[in-house]
Write a structure and sequence with these properties.
11-stranded mixed beta sheet; 11 strands; Amidase signature (AS) enzymes; alpha/beta
């Protein structure tokens, strides 16, 4: 990671990053460029370095902030019309930790509005283009962050992962993307999607950079009661030397519904692991077939609850067509939410409604418990799992945006990790014949985050 010093100034790093951001404007990566504040911060860091003062581990490193992280710099819109004009009075814990180490936010990145989507086509600001093919999607919901790193605009970017929203765009754009164990990083100050599956993570270019970012951002936070003690920095890492790891391959994920080139990439990586002395273990995990259905009941239920606060009264967009309070609520929410937001609100309210709670939500919660136990059973037989992130490489813009079921099926291999709370790292695994990146995900048991990142070096 490029750190400012007396040879390379923070101001130079920031200016270069901003210039690249403008050069790649057609990709629609950023919803806001933080030019003035970023340059001010860079000059302060350069002055501290000139005085010989100690600076942070990320001093002068430019980064991109997914637009659902609260910060007073620029509007936090979550790429949604209903949050237009909202400038946060608070800073997300994860942002505060990064900036305490000297990282400099150069801009906010585009995303599916409220993180509802797998392509960044559900953004109020329009879609972000794939870093390798401008006719294809960037993935979602953290598409802008993935492309900002893939095009080398910034060294790293933040993301959120509720069902694959870091890992899938990382896979589509050929970078590393990490979803930690649930509770590893504080969610305080991040716009909520589904509170029981939301995870804060990063996009980076190397496992070493990812390890550094995780060491900074992880840890308990009194403002988020779901955070875990800082096991990441306390963990005794098992640096791999002559030790053998057992890597599980899920047979249920290796079938004809998966693109042949992705299946071949998985086989290639397995062969490489075998050649290094690691053991490949084939597993059956039948409960995972319930994951997608359970996810799209549990998550919309939580979405409907979390989005109920947006009413046009206290902050954000307010409809001008309203004569009374009922009309204000109705018109603000009708005009402010994207179609996918409305779809999830309606599904969520339906599965929670009287007469349907037991039939849908309660059954999904029971299926979630089965999925948690399935992962626990799997990790008694292996140390890690290696699977595709998505059944397909990046698809074309407009190809699935009007077919919600087809779009949801893109998440079939990623959502189970969020339901189980286990960590997953998307790793670059080559390209298709058309030049599209292929990503695989390395999965570990809960709280194995550091060892997972270290082991990923075996797959380079």
């Amino acid at each position: 990671m490029k750190i400012a010093n007396k040879k390379v100034t923070a101001e130079r790093l920031v200016k270069d990053a901003l210039a690249k951001a403008k050069h790649f404007a057609e990709y629609n990566i950023f919803t806001y460029l933080n030019e003035e504040e970023a340059l001010k911060k860079a000059r302060k860091i350069d002055a501290r370095i000139a005085r010989g003062e100690d600076v942070g581990k990320l001093a002068g490193v430019p980064y991109a902030l997914k637009d659902n992280f609260l910060s007073p710099e620029g509007e936090t819109t979550a790429s949604a019309h209903i949050l237009q004009g909202f400038v946060s009075p608070v800073t997300a814990t994860s942002v505060a930790k990064l900036e305490a180490e000297g990282a400099i936010m150069i801009g906010r990145t585009n995303m599916d509005a409220f993180a509802h989507g797998s392509s960044t086509e559900n953004s109020y600001f329009g879609p972000t283009l794939n870093a390798h093919d401008k006719e294809r999607v960037a993935g979602g919901s953290s598409g802008g962050s993935a492309v900002a790193v893939a095009l080398d605009i910034v060294e790293f970017a933040t993301g959120t992962d509720t069902g694959g929203s870091i890992r899938q765009p990382a896979s589509f754009n050929g970078v590393y993307g990490f979803k930690p164990t649930y509770g590893c990083i504080s969610r305080y100050g991040v716009v909520a999607m589904a509170s029981s599956t939301d995870c804060i993570g990063f996009f980076a270019k190397t496992p070493e950079d990812m390890d550094l970012l995780m060491s900074i951002a992880s840890g308990q936070d009194s403002k988020d009661m779901t955070t875990l003690p800082d096991y990441y920095n306390d963990e005794v890492s098992t640096e791999l030397n002559s030790s053998r790891a057992r890597v599980g391959i899920i047979k249920d994920f290796d079938n004809e519904s998966v693109d042949p080139e992705i299946r071949e990439a998985l086989k290639t990586k397995c062969d490489a692991l075998k050649s290094k002395g690691h053991e490949i273990v084939e597993l059956e995990m039948p409960a995972l077939k319930y994951a997608l259905a359970a996810y799209y009941i549990i998550v919309p239920a939580e979405v409907a609850s979390n989005l109920s606060r947006y009413d046009g009264v206290r902050y954000g967009f307010r409809s001008e067509k309203s004569d009374d309070l009922d009309a204000l609520y109705f018109n603000t929410r009708s005009e402010g939410f994207m179609p996918e937001n409305k779809r999830r609100i309606m599904i969520g309210n339906f599965v929670l409604s009287s007469g349907f709670y037991d039939a849908y939500f309660l059954k999904a919660a029971k299926a979630r418990t089965l999925i948690v136990k399935e992962y626990e059973k799997a990790f008694k037989k292996c140390d890690y799992l290696l699977t595709p992130v998505s059944p397909n490489p990046a698809f074309k813009l407009g190809e699935k945006v009007n077919d919600p079921v087809a779009m949801y099926l893109e998440d079939v291999m990623s959502v189970s990790l969020n339901l189980a709370g286990v960590p997953g790292l998307a790793i670059p695994a080559g390209k298709t014949k058309k030049g599209l990146p292929i990503g695989l995900q390395l999965v570990g048991p809960r709280r194995s985050d550091k060892n997972l990142i270290i082991f990923s070096k075996e797959l380079i």
